[in-house]
Amino acid sequence: MSSTSAVEPGTRLAERFRLEDRVSESDGATLWKAIDEILARPVAVHTFAPDFPRVHEVVTAARAASRLTDPRLTQVFDAAEDDKSAYVVSEWVTGETLTDLLANGPLEPERAAGLVAEAAEALAHAHEAQLYHLCLRPSHLMWTNGNTVKVLGVAVDAAMWGLTTDQPALDDAEGLGRLLYAGLTGHWPGDEEEGGLPAAPMIDGHFCTPRQVTAGVPGYLDTITVRACLPESRKGQGALASPAEVAESLADVARPMPIPISYPSTPAVASASHTEGLELAHRPKSAPVPPLPPPPMQRRPQGGGGSTLNRVLMTLVVLLVIAAVGVGAWTIGRSLGSPTQPQTATNTPTSTKSATINAEAVKPKNAKGFDPLGDGDEKTDIAKLAIDGKPGTLWKTETYTSADLGRLKDGVGLLLDMGKPMQISDVVATLSEAPGATVELKVGDSPELGSLKTVATEKNAAGKTTLTPEKATSGQYVLIWFTRVPTDAGTFHGTIYEVVVHSPGSA
């Protein structure tokens, strides 16, 4: 290409990336929305004017960033530089930036902390590869339409704007602290507004701490923010000097969960623009479904026929349901009245259901992170959060490099001490929504792996998972044992928000 102006909508790069819409242009760098014609997906493409001074640095940074594997970081698909053209192709991310999320004021403190915790873990991964961000702003942190956190522009944006530093770890830790400050207060702790956020208020020439700006900010989050980005207010507390240290300080924060209420009205076009990887996972579920409801909604105002037809259909459905209920009731009554007939298949589930209905929830006396095949402990310090009755708190395993626990061990789990031997009707564990976990329920009278017997197994478990023993089971110790853990926003770990153990009591 001879100039930026010569690159127009419709231009094809590498014989596959068709430029569609010019999104923004600044200092010789132009961002486009484009289509990858081979994979039929939207992508983001940066092109550069011939006199852009840092093309080589940008392409080099993009190629390095393309090797990052954490899905919470923008994926780079292609980067090229020659005499005719230079471009960088990355995933097209749709969702809400932190700026968007703050449009109506500060976030709930735990949600702000959860978003930044995810970003910190992702950046810690980038720093391990000696790749840095250096210019974190609210526009770089996104909550995607796929209900995940995404950090935009690692390495590439710094190269694009010529940013360098001799203390990258400290700079990115401060950037994360500013994002946390913004999430907690709706203000930006900088010399001027940022992305529409007002500058943070000051006292005696120093930025106010989050608690001084917004009521209800927990003390520990105030402290973490101060340690990350407000050196004047630390009062002897050590600085958080790297993304890894910020991530560690936020390790026990509940991670952001999807908010179903917010997304039913998301247009079908937006759901077709999910981030790479997530888009493919969600497309069979979401993309074909949303386009179906609009046509009937558009036709209804044209006349009464649609409403009449709907009433007729609804009446038929109600009659069918009534008929089905009647047949079901007659069948049950007949089986109860004819005990001599062989009804084994029917009676077994009925007795199981009765036992479950009569069962009572029993609170464990204690909970422990159980790692008998490793170092013995698996975050026992937060194990109690899985039995505290609060669905917003959680226990999770250590982070692993793969679903099979990094091939380090055969399993890891959460061990509950019920205080005394008792019969176990079932155990309901609320896991993360990420699919892919394999969990086993083990029960026994000794807290040793060899004496705990597997009584139920659930594969590809996610969300609320009920583990029901196939036959009568009793013991003092109950173990939820992960043999595979899901990808949870870029890393592999098992998560349990809450565990409820049911026992028939005297049974």
Automatic annotation (TrEMBL):
Gene3D superfamilies membership: Galactose-binding domain-like, Phosphorylase Kinase, domain 1, Transferase(Phosphotransferase) domain 1
Gene Ontology molecular-function annotations: protein serine/threonine kinase activity
Region (Disordered), start-end ranges: 267-306, 334-355
Matches recorded under CDD domains: PK_MviN-like
Composition bias, Pro residues: 287-298
Keywords noted in UniProt: Kinase, Serine/threonine-protein kinase, Transferase
Region forming the signal peptide: none
Bias (Low complexity) ranges: 338-355
Protein name: Serine/threonine protein kinase
Organism the protein comes from: [Actinomadura] parvosata subsp. kistnae
